[in-house]
Amino acid sequence: MNGSSSLLFEDSSVIPFEKNLKDSVEETPKDLTYCRAILLIIKYALPSCFGLVLRKLVDNINFYFIGKMDQPDYISGAGLAMLTLNITVISLGIGLSGGVETLSSQAFGSGKNYLAGCYYNRAQVIMAVMFIFQAIILFFSEDLLVLCGQPKMAAKIAGDFIIKMIPGVWIVCQTELLRRFLTSQGVLYIVVNSQILSCILHTIWLYLFIDVYGFGLDGVVYATTITYVLSFILPVLYITFYKEVLKPQSWHCINGDSFTGLLEYLEFGVPSMIMLLLEVWGFEVLTLIAGTLGENELGASIICVTFDALIYQIALGMSIALSSLIGNNLGSGRIRNSQIFINLATCMPIIFFVIVAYFYIFQGEAIARLFTEDQTLIDLIVSTFPIFVLHLLGDYIQTCHIGSIKAMGYQKYATVVCLLSFWLVSFPLTYVFTYIMDLRLTGVFLGIAVGYTVHAAVFLILIYTTNMKKLSVKIQKRLECSNRALNANGLRNVVEFSEMSDLLNSS
């Protein structure tokens, strides 16, 4: 028995236990300067930004090929399908992966690499279970869309598209989970490199399946699924054969430790998911409101939001970078570094906003002409842009600080803030501005602007009133408890194996 116990601590292959912070935060020295911090944020954010834009680009390429089919029902059906998949599967999966941004980044910062890998595996287990129920619901998409008042033909096309896309959207969620896990340990380019290759091949698949083989809308499904699978499988295979690119002991198969501590993961993952859903669903509601104002207002709203969604990926990439950098430093106890990154999470979005606002206000017509040649619609968009940009400052600040919130593990508080700012402030004001004051589309974007301003302001108060030193100590204690639980589980496994060996030898 004693020999078994000592084996646990002598052989790191049983249960890895890191005794120091080697390689945990090597890129963020104790004497970190603001210039160095800015460069680190850019270094971490660029691959995420590029990868997120590439994922959006796949959808745009799809609709280009669908438009060439000269079937209006295909466009509406496919658009309805992608909207449904985004708000029912992809948003939930990406939101749930927020637990990895919190837990794995903190674990890597404290040098507990094996524990960080366990958090990633636990996320996979939870997402797999959740997806079973999602897939069952998606099989009834056509009927559900008809119940929601959608045209029957569009609902039929969307339902068929959704069912065939089920494997692909699950892979999207896994890819985004992997991206966040790798970023949390400073491995930045593996996923985006696979996406670049997959995106290049995507156009070839579409050409073959649609133009050569004539599969029609099914060809879009086949091409997209292949692209999504390649984006995930290629980095997984690369990591599997070249594990040295990751931190030691962080990449391992799902095992018994992956099924323990699930509640701990859900404590951070579920609020992250709800937080994202409140915002995503909120924007869909605002689109519906714009639709009640007329065809031109709906078109202008969709164009504004579509272009903004592309630019927004930069802020989102910064958020992913900040969650990793702040989480690493909180996990390692480097409070000053964490505060520097938090300060930059406030300042950098302001600079980004000024640049973006300039193009919206002074280059608005050029932007509008990227989407339409209808002069009436262009004039409406150009007149709307000065009001539309008002919400961007609050949006960019709160987006970057979502990275801070996740790094701190404050998702529960942030969920309440999202609920209040969007659903109890923004929507009522949008109704007042749009209908009662008859500001129409201007009222819609004014309501959004007030909501995001409140959102950002409360985030700033929450973050800057937190005692980071106490928070860091709390994080380190929680990680130590989780690591001890793994060690205790490993000790039980070693003891059971030893007793079984003794029994076999005696027989």
UniProtKB/TrEMBL annotation:
<dbReference type="GO" id="GO:0042910">
    <property type="term" value="F:xenobiotic transmembrane transporter activity"/>
</dbReference>
<dbReference type="InterPro" id="IPR048279">
    <property type="entry name" value="MdtK-like"/>
</dbReference>
<feature type="transmembrane region" description="Helical">
    <location>
        <begin position="376"/>
        <end position="393"/>
    </location>
</feature>
<dbReference type="GO" id="GO:0005886">
    <property type="term" value="C:plasma membrane"/>
</dbReference>
<feature type="transmembrane region" description="Helical">
    <location>
        <begin position="74"/>
        <end position="96"/>
    </location>
</feature>
<comment type="similarity">
    <text>Belongs to the multi antimicrobial extrusion (MATE) (TC 2.A.66.1) family.</text>
</comment>
<keyword id="KW-1133">Transmembrane helix</keyword>
<feature type="transmembrane region" description="Helical">
    <location>
        <begin position="262"/>
        <end position="290"/>
    </location>
</feature>
<keyword id="KW-0813">Transport</keyword>
<keyword id="KW-1003">Cell membrane</keyword>
<feature type="transmembrane region" description="Helical">
    <location>
        <begin position="443"/>
        <end position="464"/>
    </location>
</feature>
<dbReference type="GO" id="GO:0015297">
    <property type="term" value="F:antiporter activity"/>
</dbReference>
<feature type="transmembrane region" description="Helical">
    <location>
        <begin position="340"/>
        <end position="361"/>
    </location>
</feature>
<keyword id="KW-0472">Membrane</keyword>
<feature type="transmembrane region" description="Helical">
    <location>
        <begin position="413"/>
        <end position="437"/>
    </location>
</feature>
<dbReference type="Pfam" id="PF01554">
    <property type="entry name" value="MatE"/>
</dbReference>
<dbReference type="InterPro" id="IPR002528">
    <property type="entry name" value="MATE_fam"/>
</dbReference>
<keyword id="KW-0812">Transmembrane</keyword>
<feature type="transmembrane region" description="Helical">
    <location>
        <begin position="125"/>
        <end position="147"/>
    </location>
</feature>
<feature type="transmembrane region" description="Helical">
    <location>
        <begin position="187"/>
        <end position="208"/>
    </location>
</feature>
<protein>
    <submittedName>
        <fullName>Uncharacterized protein</fullName>
    </submittedName>
</protein>
<feature type="transmembrane region" description="Helical">
    <location>
        <begin position="37"/>
        <end position="54"/>
    </location>
</feature>
<feature type="transmembrane region" description="Helical">
    <location>
        <begin position="220"/>
        <end position="241"/>
    </location>
</feature>
